[in-house]
Amino acid sequence: MNKKILDGQIGLLLLVIMGVVVALVISVASRSLSDTVLSRQERESSAAFSLAETGVENALSSLRQGSVPSGVASLVDSTGLVSGGYEVSPTTSYSLYVKEGETASLDLNGFVGASVDVYWTKKSDSSENLGCTSEGSGSAPAGLEISALQEGSDTAARSYYNAFGCNLPGNGFLASVTGGADYLSKVASLPIPANTSELRIRPVYTGATISVAGAGLLTQLYLIQSSATGGDAQKEIEVKRGLDAPPTVFDFAVFSAGSLVK
Q1: Which spans in the chain are helix H?
Q2: Do residues 16 and 9 touch, judged by C-beta distance below 8 A?
Q3: How far apart are CA 51 and CA 188, in angstroms?
Q4: What is the arrangement of strands in the sheet containing 177-179, beginning at the earlier edge strand?
Q5: Do 123 and 211 form a contact (C-beta atoms < 8 A)?
Q6: CB within 8 A of 135, min separation 6: which ones?
Q7: Backbone phi, then psi, for 46, in 5-degree steps?
Q8: Is residue 177 within 8 Å of residue 186, measured between CB atoms?
Q9: CA distance readout (Å), 93 to 66, 81, 161, 210
């Protein structure tokens, strides 16, 4: 009787040991399979992102050479893991973030309209929509310097505007109006002098997202959209590129009305 009980206990113990071994084997196999899947997904994700970046670089290279790609250009990865494409879309409205002291440049050659609307400073962005405390960098939401450069003339028509609700008396800037739901400030129907070839807009006090719209504007930006997919990976990159323009440092040199003296 005791021998039968002992045999039964041994059998039960063997079953327990076998169950533990099987569980360990399944766990190791599952972990190995999971690692394999994660490794594959990581390779696909990295390849997809790299291919999408390649599409953006190809588009930027074409634009630098003065060529605007038409339609969707195909992309093929050398590893064969992913494929994709990119497209360049010209836009007639302007909307970009511009750092303090840098310049947004709009091409007005061929513009037949009389005015444009200028919006700036995203209300929802606390880094742009600062409190109005005093004149100075970082002490107020952006004001604007707007320069209209006229073809065949050595002069530039300049105007200056404070942010809406932040009329700093010491700077002599003009007041702006509310920019609506999305923007803090607006210059409505900014008049464009005849023969203006370029409009340059510079934020002061802080950087700001600047948006310009008007009937009759020609291409002001290029929207580049590049994507790549493969397996479980899908990557999309969107980039806005402005037109070629002289750097900000030249605003008061190349376009100076008088002689330059060293």
Answers
A1: 2-64
A2: no
A3: 42
A4: 94-98, 208-213, 115-122, 183-191, 177-179
A5: no
A6: 168, 170, 171, 205
A7: -65, -40
A8: yes
A9: 20, 37, 21, 11
Residue 231 neighbours by CB distance under 10 Å: 14
pLDDT at 198 over 60: yes
Burial of 146 (0-12, 13-18, 19+ CB in 10 A): buried
pLDDT for residue 20 is more than 80: no
237 closest CA partner among 58, 29, 21: 58
Sorted by sequence, the CB contacts under 8 Å of residue 217 that are 6+ apart come out as: 92, 93, 94, 106, 108, 111, 113, 116
Residues 184-196 pLDDT 10s: 999 999 999 888 9
Residue with tokens 């041994």: 10
How many helices, marked H, and strands, marked E, lie in the chain?
A: 1, 13
- Residue ranges covered by each domain of the chain: 93-218
Cβ neighbour number for residue 238 with a 10 Å cutoff: 11
pLDDT tens-digit series, residues 225-237: 999 998 888 999 9
Separation between Cα atoms, residue 97 and residue 104, nearest integer Å: 9
pLDDT in tens, 135-155: 999 999 999 999 998 876 667
Q: How much is the mean pLDDT over the chain?
A: 86
pLDDT at 13 over 80: no
Q: pTM above the 0.70 mark?
A: yes
Q: Dig out the tokens for 75 from the structure.
A: 């992309």
Compare 154 and 169 and report the one with higher pLDDT: 169
Q: Which CATH class is domain 93-218?
A: mainly beta
Distance CA 102, CA 204 (A): 9
